[in-house]
Known about the structure:
Blueprint lengths: L1 H6 L5 H32 L3 H29 L1 H19 L5 H33 L4 H24 L4 H19 L20 H31 L9 H15 L1 H7 L2 H21 L3 H15 L2 H9 L7 H29 L2 H18 L6
Helix pairs in contact: 2-4, 2-5, 2-6, 2-7, 3-4, 3-5, 3-14, 4-5, 4-7, 5-14, 6-7, 6-9, 6-13, 8-9, 8-12, 8-13, 8-14, 8-15, 9-12, 11-12, 11-15, 14-15
Amino acid sequence: MSTAILASDSIGRAEQFSTRVAFFIAGFGGAVWAALVPFAKTRAGLEEGGLGLLLLAFGIGSIIAMPLAGALAGKYGCRRVLIASSLMVCVALPALATVSSAPLLAASLFILGAGVGSVDCVINIQAVIVERAAGKALMSGFHGLFSVGGIAGAAGCAGILSFGASPVTVSLIAAVFTAAMLIWAAPHFLGFGGGSSGPAFALPHGVVLFIGILCFIVFLTEGAILDWSAVFLTFTRGADPAHAGFGYAAFATTMTIGRLSGDAIVRRVNRVTIILVGGLLAASGLLVATLVPSVTAAMIGFALVGAGCSNIVPVLYSAIGKQTLMPESVAVPAVTTLGYAGILLGPAAIGFVAHVASLPTAFLIISVFLIGVAASGRFLKT
């Protein structure tokens, strides 16, 4: 920690810019893979079940890599880990567009997950340090660039593919673009991590565990909308399957807008209030979607969920920078891993509840959890 404190005087706008670029890279890399999934499925001759198992490789790679990335950042600095992780993304994307066997696809996807997960983890460590050095709210804007990267990756790949380009061409363009962004930002990545004292790995405890649980719930909510909103609109509300994707689009749009405008809001409103209002807004969105029998109401509800969730996680990461129980190089990976677990395990749990009861019931249970998040903010030092 002392190294970070001594170097904090040298942190300025260039480091803030590099932080935004790395968040963009993390969002961009995952979105490019999403556009390549149908081609990989066809090339490998996978059925839905086999594809589902293949997709687990991304999450496994991310969850395994995050604690290791945090430990390496604490020892060698954020810069080295961010460069190595971003290069893993650059290598994995072309491989995912060319290999045809399931084992090789799984290995490539594992590398991509490890790269994206490591970038996501370490850049949050850097973000905590940069925000603290700046003495003002920056975290929402940082996370907003992750969303912008996701939109750019998905829209850019779709646009290039629509012009008849092959998946290999798209992946190479994405890899070159990622490398160019990395070269632009790398000189201003932090040469130190979130503290070198203490254990390299540690289970979250105390306030860090509390923050991790809140992140788990919010990420679970995001995973629920990502994986189940189209199913809900189609089979519960009777929407045209061709239009069902607009539910997630409404969620993603309000979340991106909320994060990009979030720093200005956080500077004017107490962070506890952000968590309170955000949690209640997200819970009310799910209540509207499930209790009002209308496709339009469901769309509005999902948009409210995105707006409500948008700034909760950034505020929680800011809270990590204010706690002294665990160094950032250990606390951030622990919280990020719990969050990813919510995205990976949550949708499966929702499917189980939907099978036993109904999908609206599962959404209602999540709304109760979100009310709990809203009530929990007052216990944090934010």
